[in-house]
Amino acid sequence: MADESTDLTGKVAVVFGTRPEIIKQAPVLHALGADGARVFTGQHYDPELTDAVLRSCGLEPLARAVEGVGGGTRAQQVARMVDRLADRFTRQRPRAVVVQGDTNTANAGAQAGHYLGIPVVHVEAGLRSHDRSMPEETNRLLISALADVHCAATPENARNLLDGAVPAGSVFVTGNPVVEAVTALCPSEEETARLLAEHGVAPGGVVATVHRPENTDDPARLGVLLDGLGRLGVPVALPLHPRTRKALAAWGVAVPAAVRVLPPVDYRTFLAFTRSAHLLVSDSGGVQEEVTVLRKPLVVVRTSTERPESVAAGFSVLSEPADLVEHAERMLSAESLARIAAAPSPYGDGLAAQRIATLARDGAVVLQQV
Known about the structure:
Structural class: alpha/beta
Number of strands: 12
Order of helices and strands: EHEHHEHEHEHEHHEHHEHEHEHEHEHHHH
CATH topology of the largest domain: Rossmann fold
Helix content: 40-55%
CATH superfamily of the largest domain: Glycogen Phosphorylase B
Largest sheet: 6 strands, parallel
Radius of gyration: 20 Å
Number of domains: 2
CATH architecture of the largest domain: 3-Layer(aba) Sandwich
């Protein structure tokens, strides 16, 4: 049975369903205090991806507010979540609904709130890859059409919204709460050393993550990517997303000996891996932000990115799998490392969550003004 232990009436309903959403919504929930209420859809239904991350972000695990979402098709997930969330919001009407990013959960939460006339606040609004073959891009476009308050992480994100005819009075440059999350949760040097030892990860190597369909759903591309990781010349730690694990088994793709496959890790452990790494290789959106706080070089193995600010600031470079080794060498050049050491994070000053919490509390007022 779906969890309804928390009454949403009059609260700011903070909706999340995936690991990245937990990480970025946690600072917002902490800033909201008693005004906030958590709604977990269960899109990431594996406890390895949720409970441990909730705890590492200072939140207790909770039951799913929507049953039967995990593992469904995209259409099934969105339809079921819209239906169940709208029903819950009708019976326990929140003062505002906060969604984050570009997931199916964020899409569904925005639809459910909008259809009921509840102010919808979009955290991390205005990202654009301009590649509509990406499910995330479609979700972003839909949420932007529905949201009432748009919390853009950067001025470029805000410009994307204004160029898309979003009313200027509803767009706010808040920064990204990932800065607060990384700053608050990054372990000390002593704890970092302990966590690396516990997982058998050597400091100074490479940390990689792979989970996006453009990489996992193409066996040839996935094979080339893993081969590139094996040719970097240093040990590679690969915490394996469940989707990637299934893809490796389904396609029969071999993992090179230099790549150490690990189970998914909690957020603090991943930050420990990141702060000690020589280089990161990833197709994650969140990692593109996190490296700017920890000042680490990153090769983004994707055809496009919705976070060009990380590339422009010199923290990351886009790469096809076949070019991974070449781009890794480029990111580790003395010139590149010096630029990274001197560049501030483009994602804000660490006060984003407070700004977002204020806007969420005042969402109804903002809605009346737009």
